[in-house]
Amino acid sequence: MAMAGRILVVLGLLLMAQQSLQLSTRHPLYSTIQKINENARFSFIAILGTSETNEKAFFESSSFVPNEYQPTIQLAGRTIHIGTIYAANVLYLTTGGSTINAGIITQAVIDAFSVRLIINFGSAGAINDSLSVGDVAIPKRVAFTRNINWLKYGTLDARVRGHLKIGKYNTPQEGENFLEGFDVNEVDVHKPSSNSTKYALWLLYDRYLLEIAKTLEVELAQCLDSTCLHGEPKLVVQRSASTSDVYILNFDYREHLFWEYKVSTVDTESAAVLLAAKSNGVPAIAFRGITNTAGKSSDDSNLSYLGSLNAVTVVIAFLAKLPVPYLAMPNF
């Protein structure tokens, strides 16, 4: 990277760190967290897992070195693990596996700590047949596909992309249905430095971080004990992902999401984490390990834990690739 480019990266990261220091002096943890921030010398990379399974895989990697003086702190009902990976200050926490939980804890961490980067990793269901259990997907963008208008009977506009007409799925043949159907709303995206708001279906991940992710070369685990996947797992930078506040087991809804939105994966947290990050000007990236096929049968369903293990492998490899401005940005 040219010198001018490096300077711009550092200045941008410093500005983000300043914006994130928002914890009220009346907060019961104010003194403790201030001390953690001051002792850290450098700001934090926040790594957000989505479940206890992800947390188990993260700590099995042995890459995380706990802070000697303050290894954990309780914040908003979660345990925040404080430490380092490759000498970079890291916060690890589990969001709680739902859309609202993910958004709440992301904002709480940004408010409390000097956060320069968010890495969101966890499990996902594959709805693109090119992805299998054990693969790791890196989305370029994500949509919250359950922010819906449930429509009055007879008002669905077939020209609106993404609409779902329930009568289409009547059995034994399609027809009309008083439940009608729904279409999807865009979400409000607030800019951190102004009162302006834009509306968007797709939330975009940080382009610079994605460019780094594209250079990763990692060996992913194919076996658990003596049982192995039918194919070699792969790392894929994919175009689109879907976040929903429902766990998808229905094959027809899976197909609807794929054909209407061309998404490759579904999960319950990514869009919420990214929206909170964007609202605070913090760059973010996601790594989703494929643990199921969202309503479609898989011969490898008993090896779902490999999705979590492989996602952690990619996170650690990504941290090793980050340039100095991300790994050692001065704290405030």
Automatic annotation (TrEMBL):
InterPro entries: Nucleoside_phosphorylase_d, Nucleoside_phosphorylase_sf. GO terms for biological process: nucleoside metabolic process. Keywords: Signal. Pfam families: PNP_UDP_1 (PF01048). This is Vegetative storage protein. Residues 45-300 form the Nucleoside phosphorylase domain. One of its GO terms (molecular function) is catalytic activity. Residues 1-22 form the signal peptide. It comes from the Eukaryota. PANTHER family: OS06G0112100 PROTEIN, PURINE NUCLEOSIDE PHOSPHORYLASE.
